[in-house]
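Example protein as discussed:

>
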Amino acid sequence: MSNRVAQWYQDGEWWVRHDRTTKSFPRLRIEAVKVMQWGLSALFCKPEWKDHNTLHITAGFGPALFDAVEGYVLMEEGQFTCKVRFKWPFLSFFIKDKTLADVGAMCVEVAGTPLGSKEIFVVHGHNEEAKSQLKKLLSALGLQPVILSEQTHRGRTIMEELDYWSRTCSFAIVLMTPDDPGSGEAKSLLRARQNVILELGWFMGRLGRENVILISQGEIELPSDVLGVLYLPFKTNVHEVAAEISRQLRDVGLL
């Protein structure tokens, strides 16, 4: 890989860009199509997998005869490379800058959190004591817990904040505490705040299930669709599951 990371450079008739990523290879492969197909959304795209690691895509105005742009996404563990070629020189004068900007923006989104990030997003409800325990635990492990209410919002909405931090943090821990009354068949159980459930789904989608831990206090109603997320119940103190949290963070390379 060139030492020019996250920026375009020209290599003959090709524009090339390298991006590093913390995402697993299977997840990166799933999202590779987004890099080109969404980046070239103004054109008709035709993706084709050349092999397990190489995606080829052409884009234009319909039939192959009218293809205007050709691209590749080449994937390796921890990194991927995008290559873009404009097949009609006179047309590239009009579409090159926008195309490279759009594909580059999708590269940033697909790459996700920068390597080496020690920031852990903490999703929580009303239990201030449990939140404080988790914050102290993560700090003691040399990590940087991010608690939304403690951040400067700079005029962003809550959803914009979640979008920003899901691109900055490498991991999320969701603290579910019994804050609200349950409903339906689980009416006798308390449940977490609805914002906690929303943010759990958000970070599962943005970071991947392997980069989310769900910890819950006591008897509590749990979402039915969280299979694949590490679930750690505790009774009164977050430190009851400290060993399991440390093990998972070590497995993903944060410790």
